[in-house]
Amino acid sequence: MSRMGDVLAGFHAAWEFGSDSVLIRYERGIRTPRLFHALGERRIPLAALAGVTLSPGRRGTVVLRAEPRPGADPLIEAAAGQLKEAHDPYRLVLPAERETLAEYYADELRARLDDDPGPAERHLVAPPEAPLQFKAYDGKASFDGTTVHFRWFWTGASTAKWKAGDQSFAVTELSGVEWRSPDALDGHLRLLPRDGGTAAVQADQDPAAVVFGLGYGPVHESLPFAAAVLAAVRERATAAVPAAAVPRRDPADIAERIRHLGELYQAGLVTDEEFSSKKAELLAEL
C-alpha cells in the first residue's frame, strides 16, 4: 500500500493496510453482526486474496469486498457459501461519498495480488482460537484444540445419542467438519470421521453431530467452532504426511562413476582437491 498503517473505516469494521496483509478490526456496536463481535479482528495476508471488488450498496453506500482464495480461510471454507451477505467478514460498507477513497485502496490491493492465484494449498488465515464451546439443541459442544466433546442434554438428545453416550473425537480421527447454518431447517454441526461411516445418518440420530434450533447453535458461536476444528484437522493431516524419501543411487552406478573419476584423476584432468571432493559426494549418495 502507499503508506503502511493507512486505515479505511466503514460502518461495522475498519481495514488497516499493511505491506503484506490487511488487518480487519470489527466494531462492537449494537447493529454490528454478532459474528463480527466474536471474530474481534483478523489479519488477512494478501496471499490469501484472489481479488477485490467495489460495488454500489444500499441506501447511499458502497461496498468494498476482498475475495478470499478457495481454501485460504477456514471460516469461509466451513461456511461453504451459507453466510448471509451482512455476515460476510470480507465486506466493508462505506458511505457513498467515500467511493473515490475506496476505489483508491481497491486499486492498491489489486496491484499487489497475483493475477490468477488459484486455490490455496493450506489455510493462510488464522482460525478462531480454542478453547471454544456452544450449546446446541441436543447437547453441548466443546473443543480444546485437540479433541471435540459432545455432552448430551436429556431434554433434546435422541434415544440413539443417549444409548451411544457422551462423545469425544480427537482431531486425528477426523477428515473434516460439516456445518449447516442454524438459519436452515436442518441446521447442525457434524464431525466427519476418516472412515466416512456416518455421512448418511440424520444429524439427530448421529452421535458425531449436534443439532441446532431456535436460539441454539447461533452462527457467531457454531461457525467459529467449526472453523477451528476444521483448521486443526487440516493441520494434523498435513503434519502426518511423511516427507518423501530420497531414493538411494544404485551402488554399481556409484562404483562406475568413482572408477571413471579415478581415470580422469590419473590422466591429470582433475586436481587432488576436486577428486577428493567429488568422490566424497558420490559416496554420500550410497
UniProtKB/TrEMBL annotation:
Top-rank taxon: Bacteria
Domain spans labelled DUF4429: 15-109, 141-229
InterPro entries, sorted: DUF4429 (IPR027860), SHOCT (IPR018649)
Domain SHOCT, first and last residues per copy: 256-283
Protein name: DUF4429 domain-containing protein
Source organism per UniProt: Streptomyces broussonetiae
